[in-house]
């Protein structure tokens, strides 16, 4: 009788070993590319390290300098949050509108899905080039349209006042993938709930407000978190389109880190900056998660 | 109801036009003469279609070289990501081992980590290994699970396979490697395709990685090459647009090839995330 038991134990052991072997790439990856560098980065952030000289221990000096003295840091935080909040809010609104209309069962839904999704697969360098050309104050499409309908033209990305709204507009062009996610959420809204509102004498707005919106809050929440994390790390468009300008008006936070690390070779200082970014993103994500209890509705015991 | 549907259709049509216009402007500008770009009032369509612009891009900058470099990175990355993410997805979905869920949670949580935090030590490490300005920093990490997102995606697919399939194979004495190759992989082909497509897009679109790790012209990828074009010929917008179009085209072609899987993958991440 002991034989099957020991066979089972042997099998369990085999599965244990196989599990670790199969998962090994990911586990090693976690240690080599994430945890190791994180520990190192924390250490580096406590040093004064310029590439050619040896690292010098300075404790929390870098952090102190960032917070109390660095004017670029303050400006960078400001423009990064301006862009992140603006692009998340407007992209979300645009994607909800598009998804709602698509969900109406209009004809040619497949074609619409494709058209809205296409801008999101354009490589960021290519789309940045394209938008620099669209934003061109003299010959760009946008000012041409404004001129032809008799409106005053704008300087777009060449004026500090309009550069962030311009980039937000550009990011709205890529609302398609969020719209598809929301559309998938909308298609999961149970028909019987909408019918129940109708039976109770509710109109379209009631259905939207009391059924549709609550049912898609998990999807909105997902997009909100991912959008926020993504847009707080914006870099390429500013690098390609504006070089961080005008007047540091698009000196996004990751741009600041890039500049300190790879242009000025201030590795210690840049590491401190990156940890502050991490703390901000973590705090913000935690905040959004916490607030989600009040407004995200998980139906069906999910 | 009828009217509403028509109205929705009209709104969508306007939105779709707004989404499409920048593309049309890209193509239109890429086929114009330089002086034609700056005429006022502007021409909507080029006087004649100047396909020569596309050829010129290849003459002015070593675009073919950049394409070759991009493929040299892309192919090993795709192999590494598809192979290791499916292995790990299989382990986290079907095999029981100690601390499995803890490992998985840790790996998932890296999705929240801004890449800037690990960037500097990683750069220093590669620079100590004298591998900056080679393709290694852009290729090798892909062989370590291929990123949390892909592992997650693969795991979702593996979880949907009925339990008795591999359980009976185990009883029949099949090894886990055999089960993975003979039973599991054929069943998750759609997932492998999705992961491969996403990986293609990521590498094709990657700008930050090559910018940090490559510093010699001859090593540049298409993304950096395009930037070169901007720096050198800032006024030749027709060439810039032609270069951008060349970069956009393969991405769009890939999208159409795998549209079904792509959209499925996108929706899946949203709902089950």
Automatic annotation (TrEMBL), chain A:
Broad class of the protein's primary localization: membrane
Keywords annotated in UniProt: Cell membrane, Membrane, Transmembrane, Transmembrane helix, Transport
Residue ranges annotated for the ABC transmembrane type-1 domain, each copy included: 77-288
Membrane topology (UniProt): Multi-pass membrane protein
Subcellular location: Cell membrane
Domain of life: Bacteria
InterPro entries listed in its UniProt record: ABC_transporter_permease, MetI-like, MetI-like_sf
Protein name: Sugar ABC transporter permease
From TrEMBL, chain B:
Transmembrane regions listed in the UniProt entry: 66-92, 104-126, 138-158, 179-201, 237-257
Keywords: Cell membrane, Membrane, Transmembrane, Transmembrane helix, Transport
InterPro entries, alphabetized: MetI-like (IPR000515), MetI-like_sf (IPR035906)
Subcellular location: Cell membrane
Membrane protein topology class: Multi-pass membrane protein
Every ABC transmembrane type-1 domain range: 67-258
Family: Belongs to the binding-protein-dependent transport system permease family.
Protein name: Carbohydrate ABC transporter permease
Organism: Cohnella hashimotonis
Lineage of producing organism: Bacteria, Bacillati, Bacillota, Bacilli, Bacillales
